[in-house]
C-alpha cells in the first residue's frame, strides 16, 4: 500500500522536521500569480502542521492577500510590462537587465538561506529574462534534495504562440532537466496544454491536472437570495491595471440606459488602477445611491456569493472564483498582448459557463445595457450551479508527496549557459 502523503515526515532518527515550502511568482502584471501562490501555501499549511511557507513575489501590492499561519513573504523589486509585452522596471529607474540581475541574486540568496524542501514556481519555468536559471542550476549541481515544481494556469496563449515561446526561451528543455513535476491548474477537458502546446512525452509523463485553483473561502455555499432583494451586480477587473475602459463603459450604462433599473452594484476598481481613472469613476457615481465604488476589498468571497451577475475581464482569478461561487459571469477578455483570456473564455463560453461581451459594445451604452440586462435577468431566474474548483487541495497533496521523496542526483546544466 502506498504511504500516506499527509503523514508526518521524520528525520532518520525519528524526529519530526518541518516541510519548508518556497513559492515563487514573478508578478509583472495583475494579481493572479501571487493570488495562486498564497492560495497554494494556505492549502499546504492547512494539510500539515509541519509546513512552513515563504512566498517570494514581485507583486507591487504584496500585502493585498492575507497570509496563513506559518507563512511569510519576501518582496522582489517589481517588474511591469510595456504595451508590446516586454518587461520593464516598474518603480526603480534602472535598466530592466540590471533589475533582473538584482532579482536573480535575491532569489538565489533566499533559496540558500531558507533551504526549502519544495520550490513551487508559478507560470514561467525560467523566470523573466532567465532570472530563475542560476538557482535551478545550483540546486541540481549541488544535488540538493529540494523538489522543484512548476505550476501553470490552464491557458498561456494561443497554441501557436505558446509553442513558439516555449521553444524560444528553452522552457521545455528546462522542464525536462530542472523540474520534478508540472501542475496544470485547470480542467484537461477545457484546455489541454500537453496536447495543444506539444509537451514532449517525458514532460507529459510528469504532468498532473489539478483543476482550477480557487481559495477555499470562494468555494463556500452560495448565499440564499431573498425574494424581494434587489439584483446585485459586481463589477471587477482584477488588479485593474488595464480595466478602466470596461469599468468606464459599465458605469456609463448604469448611469445612462440602466439608470431606472432597480438594482444595486458594487464596482471594485482594483488596486493597480491609475489614480486619475479611479477619480473619474468616483465623479461618475457620486450621486447614484444604487452603486458602491471600492478601490479594493477583502470581502470578495461575500460579494461573489451574493452576486446575481459578475461583470469582468477574463483573468484566471475572476473567472474561476466567480464560477466556483455559482455567480453568472459576463466577460470581456483581454486579447493583447496575449490571447490567454480569450482562449480561456471562448472555451468556457462554448460549455455554457459564461457569456462573452464584444469589444464593440463598450462604445455603445445601449448595446452594453442590453447585454447587462439580459445576463442579469437570466442570472436571477436561473443561477448556475457552482463549478468544482478544488485544484489547491489536489496540488497540495501532490506537492507534499513529492517533498517527502529525496531528489535523485542530477547532472549539471551546462546546456543553459554559464
Model description:
There is one protein chain. The protein has 418 residues and is α/β, with parallel strands linked by helices. The chain has 14 helices and 15 strands. It has helices spanning 32-47, 96-114, 133-141, 159-168, 171-178, 193-196, 201-204, 244-255, 275-285, 300-306, 316-324, 340-350, 365-381, 391-403, and strands at residues 19-25, 51-57, 71-75, 79-81, 87-89, 118-122, 147-153, 181-185, 207-209, 232-236, 264-268, 291-294, 309-312, 329-331, 355-356. It has a seven-stranded parallel sheet with strand order 3-2-1-6-7-8-9, sandwiched between helices. The protein has a six-stranded parallel sheet with strand order 12-11-10-13-14-15, sandwiched between helices. It has a two-stranded antiparallel ribbon with strand order 4-5. Mean pLDDT is 90; it is low at 1-15 and 407-418.
Amino acid at each position: 500500500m502506498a504511504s500516506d502523503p499527509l503523514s508526518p515526515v521524520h528525520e532518520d532518527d525519528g524526529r519530526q522536521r518541518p516541510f519548508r515550502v518556497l513559492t515563487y511568482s514573478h508578478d509583472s502584471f495583475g494579481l493572479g500569480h501571487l493570488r495562486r501562490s498564497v492560495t497554494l501555501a494556505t492549502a499546504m499549511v492547512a494539510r500539515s502542521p509541519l509546513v512552513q511557507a515563504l512566498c517570494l513575489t514581485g507583486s507591487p501590492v504584496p500585502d493585498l492577500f492575507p497570509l496563513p499561519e506559518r507563512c511569510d513573504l519576501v518582496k522582489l523589486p517589481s517588474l511591469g510590462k510595456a504595451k508590446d509585452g516586454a518587461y520593464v522596471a516598474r518603480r526603480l529607474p534602472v535598466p530592466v537587465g540590471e533589475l533582473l540581475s538584482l532579482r536573480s541574486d535575491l532569489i538565489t540568496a533566499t533559496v540558500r538561506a531558507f533551504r526549502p524542501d519544495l520550490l513551487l514556481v508559478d507560470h514561467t519555468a525560467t523566470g523573466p529574462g532567465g532570472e530563475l536559471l542560476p538557482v535551478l542550476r545550483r540546486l541540481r549541481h549541488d544535488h540538493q534534495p529540494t523538489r522543484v515544481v512548476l505550476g501553470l494556469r490552464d491557458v498561456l496563449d494561443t497554441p501557436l504562440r505558446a509553442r513558439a515561446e516555449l521553444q524560444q526561451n528553452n522552457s521545455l528543455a528546462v522542464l525536462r532537466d530542472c523540474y520534478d513535476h508540472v501542475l496544470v491548474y485547470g480542467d484537461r477537458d477545457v484546455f489541454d496544454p500537453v496536447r495543444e502546446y506539444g509537451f514532449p512525452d517525458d514532460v507529459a509523463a510528469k504532468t498532473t491536472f489539478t483543476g482550477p485553483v480557487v481559495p477555499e473561502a470562494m468555494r463556500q455555499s452560495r448565499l440564499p437570495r431573498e425574494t424581494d432583494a434587489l439584483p446585485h451586480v459586481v463589477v471587477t477587473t482584477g488588479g485593474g491595471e488595464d480595466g478602466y475602459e470596461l469599468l468606464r463603459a459599465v458605469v456609463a450604462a448604469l448611469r445612462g440606459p440602466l439608470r431606472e433599473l432597480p438594482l444595486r452594484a458594487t464596482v471594485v476598481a482594483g488596486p493597480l488602477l491609475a489614480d486619475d481613472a479611479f477619480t473619474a469613476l468616483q465623479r461618475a457615481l457620486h450621486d447614484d445611491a444604487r452603486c458602491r465604488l471600492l478601490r479594493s476589498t477583502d470581502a470578495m468571497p461575500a460579494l461573489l456569493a451574493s452576486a446575481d451577475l459578475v461583470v469582468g475581464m477574463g483573468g484566471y482569478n475572476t473567472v474561476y472564483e466567480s464560477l466556483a461561487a455559482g455567480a453568472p459571469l459576463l466577460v470581456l477578455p483581454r486579447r493583447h498582448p496575449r490571447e490567454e483570456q480569450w482562449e480561456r473564455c471562448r472555451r468556457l463560453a462554448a460549455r455554457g459557463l459564461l457569456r462573452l461581451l464584444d469589444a464593440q459594445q463598450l462604445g455603445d451604452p445601449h448595446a452594453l445595457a442590453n447585454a447587462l440586462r439580459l445576463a442579469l435577468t437570466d442570472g436571477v431566474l436561473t443561477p448556475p450551479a457552482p463549478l468544482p474548483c478544488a485544484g489547491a487541495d489536489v496540488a497540495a497533496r501532490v506537492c507534499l508527496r513529492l517533498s517527502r521523496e529525496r531528489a535523485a542526483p542530477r547532472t549539471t546544466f551546462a546546456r543553459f549557459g554559464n
